[in-house]
C-alpha cells in the first residue's frame, strides 16, 4: 500500500522508497490549460450557448488512455475528480460546465459567477466527481449573458510571461 502524506511528520527526511510511495498517490493526474503569448487576450466570449474553452497546453498527463486534441479531452472508463477554472471579463452572468460529448450529457455545472459589464471580471469554477462507464470525450464549456469581443474570455496581463486562461485538473481516483 502506498504511503500517504499523513504518515510523515514535519521536517522528517524521506528515503527514496518513502518518497516514491507518496508520489504513487499522484500518478493518475492530467492538467490542461489555455496558454497564449504575453499580451494576447483570451478572445471573444459570445452569449447565448455554452462554448468550448480552449485547452492548448498539456502541463502533465500521466493518466493512461487520456489524451487531448482540439481542446477535447479523451478519458478512459473510471472515476475522476475534476477542478476547472476560467476567467470572464465584463460578460455579466456566466458559468462553466463539463460536457460528455460521447454521451451528449452534462457531467457537472459549475458555480454561478458574475462579471460586471462595466470593468468587472471573475473566475468561474467547477468541481466534480463522476464515473465514466466507457471511454468518453469531454469538453470544458463556458456560457455568458453578454457578448464581449476580443477579451471576454480574459484580459491579458502583459507581464512578459505566458498568459494563462482556462485550466482543468483531472485526477483518476478509481
Q: What is the CATH level 1 assignment?
A: Mainly Beta
The CATH architecture can be named as Sandwich
Q: Structural class of the helix and strand makeup?
A: mainly beta
Largest sheet: 7 strands, antiparallel
Count of distinct structural domains? 1
Low-confidence stretches: none
Tell me the β content.
Answer: over 45%
Radius of gyration from CA coordinates:
18 Å
Fraction of residues in helix = under 10%
Distance between the termini: 15 Å
The average pLDDT is 90
Number of helices: 1
CATH fold name: Jelly Rolls
- What letter string, H or E per element, gives the SSE order? HEEEEEEEEEEEE
| Backbone shape | globular
Would you give an account of this structure?
The protein has 174 residues and is mainly beta. The protein has a single domain, classed as Jelly Rolls (Sandwich), CATH 2.60.120.40. The chain contains one helix and twelve strands; from the N terminus they run H-E-E-E-E-E-E-E-E-E-E-E-E. The strands form two sheets. Strands 2, 4, 5, 7, 8, 9 and 11 form a seven-stranded antiparallel beta sheet that branches. The protein has a five-stranded antiparallel beta sheet with strand order 3-1-12-6-10, with no helix packed on it. The mean pLDDT is 90.
Amino acid at each position: 500500500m502506498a504511503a500517504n502524506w499523513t504518515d510523515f511528520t514535519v521536517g522528517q527526511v524521506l528515503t527514496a522508497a518513502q518518497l516514491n510511495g507518496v508520489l504513487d498517490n499522484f500518478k493518475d493526474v492530467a492538467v490542461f490549460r489555455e496558454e497564449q503569448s504575453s499580451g494576447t487576450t483570451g478572445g471573444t466570449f459570445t452569449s447565448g450557448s455554452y462554448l468550448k474553452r480552449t485547452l492548448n497546453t498539456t502541463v502533465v498527463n500521466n493518466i493512461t488512455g487520456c489524451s487531448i486534441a482540439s481542446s477535447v479531452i479523451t478519458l478512459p472508463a473510471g472515476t475522476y475528480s475534476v477542478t476547472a477554472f476560467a476567467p470572464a471579463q465584463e460578460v455579466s452572468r456566466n458559468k462553466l460546465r463539463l460536457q460528455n460529448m460521447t454521451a451528449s450529457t452534462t457531467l457537472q455545472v459549475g458555480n454561478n459567477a458574475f462579471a460586471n459589464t462595466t470593468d468587472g471580471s471573475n473566475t468561474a469554477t467547477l468541481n466534480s466527481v463522476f464515473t465514466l462507464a466507457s471511454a468518453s470525450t469531454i469538453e470544458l464549456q463556458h456560457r455568458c449573458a453578454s457578448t464581449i469581443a476580443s477579451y471576454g474570455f480574459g484580459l491579458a496581463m502583459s507581464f512578459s510571461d505566458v498568459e494563462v486562461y482556462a485550466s482543468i485538473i483531472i485526477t483518476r481516483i478509481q
